[in-house]
Amino acid sequence: MKRILLGTLLALPFVISSLPSQASAAEIIARPSVHKPVIVARVHQKFIPTYYKTVRRGHKLVKVRVPGHYITVRG
Question: Does the pTM exceed 0.90?
Answer without folding.
Answer: no
